[in-house]
Predict the 3D structure of the following.
Amino acid sequence: MESESEVRSPRSEVESSCDAVEIREGAARRSPVQRRGLEGERCLSPDRLKGRDHARSALDRRAFLKAASLPCLAVCGGGLMGSAFAGPLMAAPAAESDSQYVREAKFYEKLPYKKIRCKLCPRECVIDDQERGFCGVRENRGGTYYTLVHSRVVTAHVDPIEKKPFFHFMPGATAFSLATAGCNVNCKMCQNWEISQVRPEQVRSTYVPPDRLTGFAQQNHCPVIAFTYSEPVVFMEYVLDSAEAARAEGIRSVVVSGGFIQTDPLKKLAARVDAIKIDLKAYSEKFYKEVVNGELKPVLQALVTLRKTGVWNEVVYLVVPTLNDSDAEFQGLARWIKAELGPDVPLHFSRFHPEYLLKNLPPTPLETLERAKAIADAEGLHYVYIGNVPGHPAESTYCPHCHQKVVERAGYTIVATHLHHGKCQFCKTPIPGVWT
Amino acid sequence: MLIKPDVSTRRSFLKQSLSLGGALVALGPHEKGVALPAADSGRSRVVIAHDAKVRTASASLDSSEITKLLDRAMQACFNVDSPLAAWKRVVRPDEVVGLKVNCLGGRGNATHPELVEAITERLRQVGITEIVVWDRQNLDLERAHYKIVERGSGLRCFGNDALGFEDELTTFGQAGSRITRTLTQVCDAVINLPVLKDHGIAGVTLALKSMFGAVHNPNKYHGNAGDPYVADVFALPPIRKKVRLHICDALNAQYEGGPSFMPQWMWPYNGLLVARDPVALDYVGWKIIEKKRAEMGVKSLAELHREPHYILTAADAQHRLGTADPARIERMEV
């Protein structure tokens, strides 16, 4: 489950790939603003998009496997696979055996009569033999629980880290970004439902074991691997193994998650990766129950746990018109963050676009986002951003002391940086983050 | 050969294969006025057909007795004098008929191939030439001793993984799903063949819940004991429109430990439940399971917080899938 800017990225990749080659070539000669415009452009109808992507997927699948010898694919914004967005839940031609994706899961307990209880997320699914949990990617086979998505990549892209968004983590870095199928919630506004709300066998996938993933990141000059797009919690085993392999090669790992996870796996995750962005869907249990099919309380607990671990953390709040956009909610959220996480945690208010089961709502009005920011600013948060509104002044970072612009952004592009060893160049105030 | 033959069914199967040729020649005029499954005015009839003779002395199933039991149930359900007259109220000869079996529990508590054979035989006798036996996955079908036949004409058998799901979402209430192309693109009519059994989350899994096997994301719909999701999924227009009849396989039944096969909680019910109203059938089936639980000293589903409220939801004004009012259910034992 993704925040808006992250969520839109894969679709944008596909959309902008109406002439994928042209964009890959053109990306180098277009200005950042032009590129940004392309990413937001819907140049294909859904049917044409599917047809095109369908045709493209076979090529891209092969290209993906050959990426080691094709570094040109690393052009920023060039989708490497895009296959998940072909969409059709077809009987995926099993070119490779499913068994290579299957590993015994971590975080579960065995129960009598071949049942198991999953201990990965707060849902704690009790699962009968031959059944799967809510996430659809973990299966009980004869009383042993298995992940079905280890190394089972359904989409991969090279993205700017700002697209996740991480604004205080290695600005300007490119992140080799990937996902498997599955999610442990079911947000009605999910922008990536075609991969998050399906079973792994319902989308095309490619076998990318951890060492090969590290190799792809290196070959594409990405200092970061981002586990994102769907919900990395449900492919935890793959994340842990990959992050370990990446760290050994000096590559950092970041996770974009809804934060619906139990404390023990979260601590293990935080110890293995370098940054975690949490999509806080709302500040009300009602929204979590009715729109997310989850719970708020465990997500808040996860944020507190994360803060204690010291791993870098940012928070995104997708503002959905009429459903989570009240002043009281913004104020409650800001107060809670300040009290429990501190004023230095970056908070991104992102614009919603109608998708999936919430197509009846309009995109978030800019005034709403600005109202949210004003409320959070007034509550004393130091780094409050507006997302999915390219060119807005609130996508840059300002020193909370002297109010000078210390990281200037235009969309996903870093225009200027005025930091020296993590401090404001103008007044020497430390700006929290991982800057190099 | 569709169904992996047991020794006891081999002869009948060969006979059945031969009869297909006869059926092709003997196509009759198209029947008009096929009965629709919606609850109509008056009471919803749920036929419970019992007969201990379906089981031989060695406790295996007797195919010919199952056919007789099916015939009795169908005649009672449609209030007609012959089984073929009943079937003609369900399907037309030009239709492709899907038989939605439930094989999750494997051989132990899946829809019996012997019952499917009996239904197939009757369908052929009323002129149906294209029949598709289907469920979630090929693997599920194979575990329940069905043989996968994806291509050809006549009798086919495959899981949703053969054709996949529609690209577009279909929505109703809280459900938003892609529906199997087997139902949307292959079948003109569907006969639902669930099993009478307990479900560890949803209370029971009978006619309504069996349609979880027609959507791409059933794992999203087990919260709150399946309420309202089970009703919402069944109310998805393509499902609601095509499912015409429900024949619940209660030859064996399971009152606890479902949906997995747990032999210690099964009992030989030796029966079939037949209805056009899935809600009424589920209500009756639920009460049968509750009664057995009480007999065996097992806590009621309500005590375990998994009473199947979705059955009541399916009958509400928003869904109108049938009736869960016992006063409006005609329970007929034959």
